[in-house]
Amino acid sequence: MVPLDPSKKPRNSFHWATCIPASCSPADLKVALDAALQPLRQRHEVQLSVDVDEKLCTVAQRMPLSTADIAVLTVILLVFGVVVAASFFDMAIYRQRPAGDERPLTRGQEILMAFSACTNLEKLNKPDPTDDLGILHGLRLFSMVFIILGHRCLFSYGGPFFNPEFLEERYRKIEDMFLLNGTLLVDTFFVLSGFLTCFGILLEIHKRKTLNVPMLYLYRWMRLTPVYMMVVAFYATLFSKVDSGPLWKARVGLEQERCVQNWWTNLLYVNNYVNADQLCMFQSWYIACDMHYFLLAPLIVIPLYKNPKLGLALLAGVTSLSIVIPFAVTYVGEYSGVLRVYMSLLEDPPSNEDYYAVYIKSHNRAAPYFIGMAAAYLYGILKLSDIKIPKGVMWGCSLAATVVGLTSMFGAWVFYIPGREYFAGENAAYASLHRVGWALTVAWVVLGGCTTRFGVLQPLLQLNAFLPLSRLTYCAFLTHGAVQLYTLATLRQPEFMSFPKLFWMASGDITISFIVALFVHLFFEAPLGAIQKMLLRKKPANRPRNENAPAAVHMADAPPPPPVASTPPPPETSTPPSPRETTPEIPDNPDEQQSSV
């Protein structure tokens, strides 16, 4: 019988693979299996049913390329050719000019140079002019690494493996909440995104005394969308042609169907509301949420700058509302206080009601973003006043933040206790407050690390080696799901799960994901970002020989490089914190200063 405990994997279902002639259909196999099992039914008086899913049938033949496949492949090959040509022009011609030749590049040469892999690699590794917000690089990279680890657990536990009791035991152990409640790590990115968005817009308003909000929205959409839609196009076309296996059609084929039908929801950033149970790219809900919050951010930050009392009231109001809404949704809908990652959910998260109706909705995930915005405003005040937090306060707040963060993370254990009575108020309170607790912890790490600093922890989070990797996290976020889906869909036999095995597979996921991310960045993200800046700037800039502008790599699941800024002298009027007058030139587009997750 099917167990009543949802943490248990049913033992009454067997998956049996058989090799048959290609001329036989799934219906033929079902008839044959029914006939073969009939004597067993009669002899032992058991009920046996046979289901042959056509998606689990694989034929050894090459799948023809469709028109869409050819179009996407053509784009990739053309871009590859342009990158090779641009890199050759950069290294063999442009950088070999005589020392006195300072003629500016033509617009066509500028566009060509935007595709130079050599120049874009240099930008990727270029240090920030200031390390005021350098701690964000480490936070972003480590969060991305742990998210990939969590998604490895999702794919492995949601696939075939020999020992389901390994995971069933995990649900009983409080120490395993680090993985089972690891969805909190996503809120780290929301905090960083809100922090950098608010701070970047404040910088822009202080510099120009105004803000072109429609242009800001356009720039944001243009900055994120091309590389995002290129990955979606790969999912919808070529991905299904890469390999094969018993699970290939059921996993990769299903993902392709969803992307073919719903790519437009990703394009419009409404995929976490429209056809959310058929989500294309299971992790893409995060990009939609962040875009929604970004649309609200200027409406809060502009009053925050011009009328701090009104701005703070607005920020407090939307933050309070973002706490109340998930409470109400959970209480009224009688949902669990935490997304319980049972094996039934892991097999296909987008089809699970708790996932598509609660977990991925923007109105349920907004609190960490607004807490990040509040942290940015407080950071500006501290920098403006040149306030250093006393060591005693640092230790006390760090201890409190640790307790709050650990409570938020490991408190989910009570919702995994089998047979425990459901209390609507308890679940609703945890649903609304545990993300707030985690966000406050992350916000304190950012504030403490960017002002007084954390001693031994600071050099680790600001390690120079992390800088290029942290700038690749957007592309890694977009591509790591395909890497992990590929390993699952090509399985020929079940895995035997253990923690060393999971960490070994996650290490491979991390390595391959960042290698793929590097190519996506060099082929699409960096060139298109450079061209976009050329199109939107007011005056064409004369590029001197061998000059490399600071990189502004943006991400949709993790914030981009921190803004290059410090603190200004107090302005004549009452305004929020802004950069010093000696701060390096702020880019024409404020989105370069903040997160695009």
From TrEMBL:
Query: Compositionally biased, Pro residues: which spans?
Result: 558-579
Which domain of life does this protein belong to? Answer: Eukaryota
Q: Does the keyword Membrane apply?
A: yes
* UniProt keyword terms in alphabetical order: Membrane, Transmembrane, Transmembrane helix
Q: Does the keyword Transmembrane helix apply?
A: yes
GO MF annotation: an example: acyltransferase activity, transferring groups other than amino-acyl groups
Task: Specify the protein name.
Answer: Acyltransferase 3 domain-containing protein
Q: Give the species.
A: Cloeon dipterum
